[in-house]
Design goal:
alpha+beta, 6-stranded mixed beta sheet, 4-stranded mixed beta sheet, 34% helix, globular, EC 6.3.3.1, ATP-binding
């Protein structure tokens, strides 16, 4: 059989079809009762009549990618973990207003479709959707020969959720005396990899296969540790105690992200002595000679999510999260301030 003109241009339609077949079983797991239709349609459909039970439903949406962490996955030939990362970046942004994730759509671009690679990425996406209680409603795989190298790929996604208007949390609920509860990250998550790759791989010359005693595993294994998906844990916290605001700690670090959900009338006084960041953070700081200011403005330093709760509920919040398998601790409190004061101040040294 002669090769099609499209195939000669570098686009393998048959490989794309094979990728869809391989991912079907994964996508089928990541569903909800409201999903209508199956894989393969032009649009994913979600039965919005489910929202009739809300008094005043507010739809929330978030879009994101995984960043240069995909370069680590590409180099190691391990792809399912970055699929998990994508969902963590999406639903954990969404949940901070109190919204329940409903569904996700994804987009994967690559230089050449390798069906098994695409299916592996989607398997991670689907697993994380299940962990977040969201449906994987649809997606797109695009082959871009000539624009991307054969092994290159990138990914992005979007999610939609819903919350009652009068149950939304945010800056307007925060008061002096409120307590900040930190939730442990699983590691670097999916931010700051341009810095981390430059420091560890380029400047320090470490290989991804290098075993680092202080990490207890190889560099590559550490860098591919998936982003924690907090969505269901965060919702349980919101429904279980008085949560006034919540912040997903991503690019920009703890102080910058927490400041986004605080009013101009308070300053969060945080104590570094309340926790010990995982070893990867000290390794990057030491090898890169990165200042405390710079590393805290780039990496999450061991805190993946922060909740601002009523002071009388602080201990209950930590216990609720512990019961769900999430390490959490009190790391600071809100103090009355003026609009000219910094929104977040970090003091002390990490343990």
């Amino acid at each position: 059989m002669s090769q099609s003109a499209y195939a000669r241009a570098g686009v393998d339609i048959e490989a794309g079809d094979r990728a869809v077949e391989l991912m079907k079983s994964h996508v089928a797991r990541a569903t909800r009762p409201e999903v209508m239709g199956g894989l393969g349609g032009f649009a994913g459909c979600f039965d919005a009549s489910a929202l009739k039970g809300y008094r005043r439903p507010v739809l929330a949406t978030s879009t994101d990618g995984v960043g240069t962490k995909v370069a680590i996955a590409q180099a190691m030939g391990i792809y399912h973990t970055v699929g998990w990362d994508l969902i963590g970046m999406l639903v954990d942004d969404l949940v901070v207003c109190g919204a329940e994730p409903l569904f996700v759509t994804d987009y994967i671009a690559c230089g050449h479709v390798v069906p098994e690679r695409i299916a592996s990425i989607v398997s991670g996406i689907a697993e994380a959707c299940v962990a977040a209680g969201a449906a994987l409603l649809g997606g797109e795989t695009a082959e871009h020969p000539g624009l991307m190298g054969p092994d290159d790929f990138d990914m992005a996604g979007a999610t939609v959720g819903v919350v009652e208007a009068d149950e939304m949390i945010g800056a307007e609920r925060v008061r002096p005396g409120d307590v900040v509860v930190a939730m442990a990250s699983s590691g670097l998550h999916s931010n700051g990899y341009s810095l981390v790759r430059r420091v560890l791989l380029d400047e320090a010359g470490l290989s991804l296969e290098a075993s680092i005693p202080e990490l207890g595993r190889t560099v590559g294994e550490e860098l591919l540790e998936p982003t924690r998906v907090y969505a269901l844990d965060a919702l349980a916290l919101i429904h279980g105690v008085q949560v006034h605001a919540m912040s997903h700690i991503t690019g920009g670090g703890l102080a910058n992200n927490l400041a986004r959900v605080l009013p101009g009338t308070v300053t969060a006084h945080l104590d570094r002595g309340a926790w010990t960041p995982p070893a990867i953070f000290a390794l990057v700081q030491r090898l890169g000679q990165v200042s405390q200011r710079d590393i805290e403005a780039t990496l999450n330093m061991g805190v993946g999510m922060a909740a601002v709760v009523a002071p009388e509920d602080a201990d209950a919040a930590v216990q609720l999260l512990a019961d769900r398998g999430v390490d959490a601790w009190i790391c600071g409190e809100m103090v009355a301030s003026s609009a000219e004061d910094p929104r977040v101040e970090l003091a002390g040294q990490h343990r």
